[in-house]
Every structure is written in C-alpha cells, then in structure tokens.
Amino acid sequence: MTAAGSTTSAAHWEPLWAEGRRYRPLCEAELRLMNDHLGSGRSHPALDIGSGDGALVRHLHHGLGYRTTGIDCSPSALALAAAQDTGTAPGPAWRCWDITTGDPAVLPDAAYAVVTCRLVYRWMDDKAAFVDRVRRLLAPGGTFWVVTEIAGRRTTTDPALRRLGITAADAELLTAGWSTVRTADLDLLRCYSLRP
Predict the structure, then answer these.
(1) Phi and psi for 94 in degrees, rounded to 5?
(2) Which of 36, 65, 76, 174 is deepest in the core (most CB within 10 A)?
(3) Which residues of the chain have pLDDT under 70?
C-alpha cells in the first residue's frame, strides 16, 4: 500500500478531521480503567499516539499529572486539540508527527513512562513494526496503554462495520513478548495494559 493510500497517513486522516469528523469520546468507565492501570503521573513523560481532539492527552496531563505530548499526523486534529486546552496551568505539548515514519529524535523526550494509543492500533498497516517502535519509546518499567475495538462485537449485519476491530491474530501480535499483559473489556472495546 502506498503512503497516500495508507490508513496511517496524513493524506487519509487530514481531510476527515478538516471536514469535522469526530470519533468516540472518552467515557467514565474508560477513564476509571485508565486511572487504575496508569496511576499518578508525577510529571513523568507520557506520549499519546494519534491524539485526535486531545481528550486523552488532556486527561493524562491535567487529570493524572503526566507531562504529556500528543502526536497526530493531522494538523487539523492538533489545532482542535490545542484550542480545547484552555486551562491556566502549562498544557500538553502537541506535535504533528507520524509514528510510522517520523524521527523519534524530534520528540520532547527520549523515553516515556506511558505510551497510549486509543482507537489507533487497528489502523496500523504494519502492526508488528508499530509495536516495535512503541517498545523503543517506552522507558524501562513503562506501560503501553492500548484501547481498540474487537472485531465482530458490533450488533450489525454490515460486514464492513463488523470488521472495524482487531482480529484475534492482531491481538496476539499486540500482546506477544510483554512481561505483563492485563485486559479489560468495555462494550465494543478492549483496553490493554502492557509492560516490558
């Protein structure tokens, strides 16, 4: 698949964000799970991949106390995220950066205590390379927090919608090689807490 046709590229996501497309908001149950698994940030660095409107980044930063950077390949998503961070305290950092091709040296930190990706893993063309890249960004003892839809959970007859989640093979690829794997289900979604 060419970069322009890739579902990980700015060419795919920028028009969707620019036209006003929005995605599933965070819910209280998901926030509670994240709080339980990630805990207090104590100003440790956190990175959110595919930050979209920035809701997860703002929660990590202002709610849990991480020093958070949100990355997205869509300038429109980042502009929306930054505009919504209206607090008086210093806010998160925002970077227009592609996790699949970008140079990690441009990120604010060399390693992160927490790396999150919400509704992103399913769209990765090369899931093994993506997971390897995340492993290199995690600090020793860090946590990779993944929230993704599981294929087949939607109650619909539309086969395109039923395939939106990850398959069992995708889940196995995601969870292989971690010393600790914890999961929790939320309706269509599964949350993964992965540690090296």
Answers:
(1) -125, 135
(2) 174
(3) 1-5, 160, 162-163
